[in-house]
Amino acid sequence: MAKRIAAIVLIFICSTVAWMVLGATVFARTYDSDSRLRGRVASNWGAPQVQEAPIAEASWTEQRRVETTQGNAVVARYVEEPHSAPLTLERTRANVALALEHRQKGLLWYSTYVVDFAGEYAFRNTTAHDSVTLRFAFPTKDAVYYDMKFLVNGQPVTSTSDQQGVTATVVVPRGTTVQLAVGYRSQGLDRWSYSFGSNVSSVRDFVLAMRTNFADIDFAENMISPTTKQRNGNGWDLTWRYTNLVSGFTIGMVMPEKLQPGPLAGRISFFAPVSLLFFFLLMFVLTTLRGIELHPMNYFFLAAAFFSFHLLLAYLVDHVGINTAFIAASLVSVLLVVTYLRLVVGLDFAVRYAAPAQITYLVLFSYAFFFEGYAGLTVTIGSIISLFVVMQMTGRVRWAELFAASSGRPGARAGTIPA
Fold first, then answer.
1. How many Å is the maximal CA-CA distance in the chain?
2. Which of 215, 339, 346, 418 has the fewest beta carbons under 10 Å from its own?
3. How confident is the model over 292-329, as pLDDT tens digits?
4. pTM for this one?
5. Looking at the DSSP assignment, which residues form a beta bridge with residue 188?
6. How many beta carbons lie within 10 A of that of residue 95, not counting itself?
7. In terms of DSSP bridges, do strands 228-232 and 73-86 run parallel, antiparallel, or are they unpaired?
8. Do residues 201 and 89 touch, judged by C-beta distance below 8 A?
9. What's the sign of the alpha-carbon dihedral 51, 53, 59, 65?
């Protein structure tokens, strides 16, 4: 009996090592592909976007006298020096629509989205100069912008554009206000945010309205939460409204992520030894109490059937959805165990005891990882219940007598269930 237990423990240890290797391989495949594919996704779809408020500056040149010494003579000349002064941003009205469209590459889902942005800004020229340069920066250079709009006082103007944004120079009489209307449609990745500027900024009469087509909204650190929000079908209508705000934070939205197949398969693989431990324990107790002798080689094939679940899941999620892969791997593994134990101990034991135990410890425990934050609690509760059941089943067993009797039956045939 001691040698049989030692052999079972050795099989369990070797299986644990195999699962650790498989889990590490899955994570390596996941993050190696992520480092290669994320840049590809960004180039094809767009990068995370940070939209900054436009800038208006009055510009002029002034002559400055410069004196230089040439021999014994002093020579004076005049050079023109450029100067600029920012105009006050008095009013902001911005509208943003975010449409989430997840895309899968390899073992990961990427949170890509389409953004429609439209903004109207009012700048007051409080300087003593009329020439004003308006600059509207794109949220990222790694994106495509279409349906572009750039209007000054409701009219198109001559402007220049590059990867950084759009720039135009207009005449704004001193003491008057210039209206700038901008808009575009683009694509991005992971998050969209609106920045008031690189430093702590003072914002006046500001309203930004955002509409999403998804309900799982999230705001990252250093992002300001909306002042009002209201459900709208499958998404939200969010509004940030401020009369006078001083802040260095941003406004924005973090796109919700889908359940990631690669990391999920890796976590399930790392947890697999716990499932096998409870399954082996229950099989050992049941077979011992019922006088069934399972050879260590039988435990080896049972462990291999468990391992087939994680192996198939790890390489199937590349090609089909995670739920389909999970169901297929579960059916294959349970079928392997039931058909094998049918030959070893009979169909009744395989169906009545082995199959429910495998479904509980392998399938249900693994499925708990689909629910973020509840896997540990679910497995803990299931483990405690299992321990209670086993303790109640074996509480009156005299293990010394049972082991002695078992050792005294070297000729007992596997699969024999005494009446």
1. 126
2. 418
3. 888 999 999 999 999 999 999 988 888 888 889 999 99
4. 0.70
5. 113
6. 15
7. unpaired
8. no
9. negative
